Amino acid sequence: MCTLHKIQDFLHDYKKIFTWPFVKGLVTNPAQLPFVAFLIIVAELVINLLVVERVPYTEIDWKAYMQECEGFLNGTFDYSQLRGDTGPLVYPAGFVYIYSLLYFITSHGENIRLAQYIFVAIYLLQLCLVLRIYNMSRKVPPYVLVLTILTSYRIHSIYVLRLFNDPIAVLFLYLSLNLFLDSKWYLGSIFYSLGVSVKMNILLYAPALFFFYIVNLGVKETIKQLLVCALTQVLLGFIFLINNPVAYIKGSFDLGRVFNHTWTVNYRFLDVQVFENNCFHLTLLAIHVVLLIIFLPMCLKYFKSYCRLKYVQQQFEPQINAKNLANKKRSKLNKKEVKQKLNKNENTEETLSKEQESFLNSFEAMLKKSDIDKGTKKSAKKHPITTEIEGKTNYSINFDVLSQLFILPMFIINFIGIVCARSLHYQFYSWYFHSLPYLLWSNNYSVITRFLLLALIEMCWNTYPSTSFTSALLHICHIVILYGVYNKISKELKMASKLE
After folding, report:
1. pLDDT tens-digit profile of 356-378?
2. What global pTM score does this model have?
3. Is 345 part of any domain?
């Protein structure tokens, strides 16, 4: 009899797949992203393999990477002596170890095809981490991610045709974000620091992460996390620090490094003299600081809300699970057995009080009204917090959507760093590409405007060499996105303050 019920339930769920609401939800409902995410991963596997097999590899930095690592493997631990055809080594120790491993795996860097397949795996792993964040936040409709991810020529080129170190740094970054969402603080800090050890751009997230530590952990625990990050850097760079500490720090964390105007994507319209001028660099730094001063207080409020609601989750989830488990057991008993069970466990069973049930219902109403669950309003109507199953109440809250209160501040602080960057090279697109849909769906622009901005940004990054027009256009798109996010966050916080 039990088997018959399971078969009936399976057939009932299976039939849902062929209904119009389910198919429509696969396109528009962020809550149904998991199924679409699987299809995206499969499609990306096929696309990347086709790119590797049919598109010629272009040598840019891979040979230089191998030369730099070869010097290390030959016993040179003085960073000032490590260099390749493109110049001295300018990345931290994590880069050296990872590319030294690739040096051995790829027969001293000669087996380019194998290296490309490794980067296909890196890209797919990162994509899984990215899609997990989008699935948790339920912010962006599935069709947006399909169109954005699958159609980017530049991103596929960066990962599997150029073999840059940027994708590896970004992989560690997304892994750390997932760990922070799971409240695995020490692991998150270690992998964040590993990302920094591959390329310094991951530090763009540091201002937001610091305040996230403070709000969630307090000063004492924040110091511990910062020590974990610092200790990771010291351990990785130890062999270089004991040989020539000045050369290592200056070489791998050189904040004053001058970029080559030849490769710039965002400042082609400037003369070389202006582009390399220290006054121009200081001006950009000042703008960066001002934008951080504007946005960080907003981010701080988001983090505080995230922390409070995480506390609510910890308080209510065990009771919700206990109540649902009890309801599930009752549904399997006949009426006589139910009465016996209730009488027997009347004094021991953990239940939700009327006040707690009232809170759950008010919490649902808050989620529906707030922007946190705006992307899933339709699904919230179909899947309310309390539902009737065979006469029994089933309680559920999708606490995962609270991740929006963490992810948006992290993405926007990184985006500010990119807007104010002294130069953007083509591989730098990987620093923020996968966060663009999230940022665009965190403003009040129309869908057409959002896709137009995505298309224009992609065009700017695909134009080689960059032109004065594409560089200026890229800045305009960035500023429009930044203003849109600021405008929406401001309105939300004003509304929240009125409710309080």
Report:
1. 555 555 555 554 454 444 444 44
2. 0.85
3. no
